[in-house]
Amino acid sequence: MTTPRVSLIIPTYNRPDVLARTLVAAGKQTLAADQYEIIVVDDGSAESICTVVTTSGLPNARCMRQVNQGATVARNTGAQAALGELLVFLDDDICLQPQTLAELAASIAQWPDCLIMGRLIWPPTMERSIYAQALRQTKSAEPLERSDLPYVYCQTGLLAVRREAFMTLGMFQDPTGGWPNWDDVDFGYRAQQMGLALRRNPRAVGEHWDYSLQDIDASSHRWYRASYAAATLFERYPQMQTDLPMFRDMTPIVWGEDTLGLIVRKVARRLLSIRPMVWSMEKITALLEKHFPTSRLLRPLYRWINGSAIYNGYRAGLRDKRLAIS
Hints:
Layout: E1 6-12, H1 16-26, E2 36-42, H2 50-54, E3 61-65, H3 71-81, E4 86-90, E5 94-96, H4 100-110, E6 114-121, H5 124-127, H6 130-135, E7 158-162, H7 163-168, H8 183-193, E8 197-208, H9 216-236, H10 240-243, H11 260-272, H12 275-291, H13 298-320
Parallel strand pairs: 1-2, 1-4, 2-3, 6-8
Antiparallel strand pairs: 4-7, 5-8, 6-7
């Protein structure tokens, strides 16, 4: 094949069926096959996933295998082997719509000094889950690609960047260790510091088969782990604490500085996060899901349970970092 314009990089680990579904969609792009390559990086799966790639029938796909080191390293491994001038990073559970790679390439051509994100949607089957229906919100149809976004919105699930810029930025880095490690926010922050804006092309669409949206248990578990890691993120980048307001009412009360409203929020957050309260909310949620799945109470309950996971994960991270908490 000729040298491709686009290199689609997909890190994967122990999910052959998920990857197979993603490859089917990746092979149906409106770009000609010789205009893009697909690089799958197997991050040390128990059994090699490369057979999924070789049996996919995609002439522009290849597979690399590394010792398990996490998705951050896997993305960098794929980027270093890429031949395209444009790198597109894709999670292995996201299925691209046919126009997506062409849209991302067009956006980068128009704004070469930008990171371009695609728009993630839920597959129809996932939208029908009780949890997804309770969390569904109407999204704005404004052309977000015309406005710069804060770096904290950076997500590696469907992200395009020029290869030259990616290498100049020092590739992806692991700011916290383990997973989830906030490598996307870290990358967005470093890009902003170098003058690269973050934008979104809403026509570059991917269906995200995110397991954490299937039920509240999976979601709250992920939020706990991410929030635990946030304590290390803020140790490295103290300025990010003000840029990620979701943690603002989870820090200790600062008497004389916090507003009355913030103090009330901090107290409420703490009360909602004690174990007996969380246990009660989980039991009520389970009963509603079983007997009253359309109840309007489910949405606030899901929000409060996730909020308690964020709070408890973050406070555990602070304790382990031996930072002062009340």
